[in-house]
Write a structure and sequence with these properties.
Helix content: 25-40%
Number of strands: 4
CATH class of the largest domain: Mainly Alpha
Number of helices: 4
Radius of gyration: 26 Å
Number of domains: 2
Distance between the termini: 50 Å
Largest sheet: 2 strands, antiparallel
Order of helices and strands: EEHHHEEH
CATH superfamily of the largest domain: Winged helix-like DNA-binding domain superfamily/Winged helix DNA-binding domain
Shape: extended
Structural class: alpha+beta
Length: 127
């Protein structure tokens, strides 16, 4: 964090219009938002329509191609941009080989967060 020096000025010079004053030596740090740890068992965050569709078709571990076919999508670029990447970044799904994201053996599965969200959808569907 960069500290910010606070200036104290007494007046504006009537001739030049410039602020006159002196450095008071006060230092203020930028305000930081409080860090809140995640609450255990709580599902947080919004699920976009595309990500929700992906979560609903995800069964066990699946390849990217299997998920795309379950969604009846043809284009891999569109699938990755709108479905897979947002789901990964939000923590709804995870890679089975995270150290090798481009591996031909890479598969994906729901995280605990994704499974909890899926559970809430099933409960809402039964109502």
């Amino acid at each position: 964090m960069n500290p910010i020096l606070l200036l104290h000025h007494d007046a504006t010079d009537p001739v030049t219009g410039q602020v006159t004053g002196q450095v008071t030596g006060q230092v203020a740090l930028p305000a930081t938002p409080p860090v809140n740890p995640p609450v255990a068992g709580e599902v947080t965050g919004e699920v976009t329509g595309e990500v929700a569709k992906l979560l609903l078709v995800c069964r066990g571990t699946m390849t990217r191609k299997q998920m795309r076919e379950m969604l009846l999508l043809k284009g891999d670029d569109n699938f990755r941009q709108l479905y897979l990447t947002p789901a990964l970044e939000a923590g709804w799904i995870e890679m089975t080989i995270p150290d090798k994201p481009t591996s031909r053996l890479q598969k994906y599965r729901l995280t605990a967060k994704g499974q909890a969200w899926l559970g809430t959808q099933r409960k809402e569907g039964k109502k």
